[in-house]
Amino acid sequence: MNILNLVKEIIMSDDQLQFYLQSRIYYYRVTENADVSKPFVVLKPILDKPFDFVSDKYLSESYLIQVDVESTNHQITIDITKRIRYLLFANNLVQASSQLDEYFESTKRYIMSRRYRGIPKNQYYKGEHIE
Q1: d(C-alpha 117, C-alpha 11), whole Å
Q2: Is the per-residue pLDDT at 62 higher than 90?
Q3: Which of 24, 104, 120, 124 can pair with 40 through a Cys bridge, CB separation 3.0 to 4.6 Å?
């Protein structure tokens, strides 16, 4: 399973986030031709490891991912970050830490970075991975 694709699908399925972000969700870093004048999100996988062992098999994978939200408007940055937290929590990914909450003068953008940990909801059933 590609955790980044799953998180992107969760974010893009929400009308409120779709309004703010359109398709400005990037993996690992922002692309060179990206429109950074509007809000955007950067997703980074930090860790994935086998979880829920039975005999010599693992039944699921636990993930730690980082979600960076950047915008020129502080309130919009907060709103997007909180909405993502709500959606990921509903999918069994809980906030593990707050990495950054900063305004960068050089880019004139607010950045809120959060890490989420968990086993994504409905990815496994009776030991079998479902896509």
Answers
A1: 16
A2: no
A3: 24
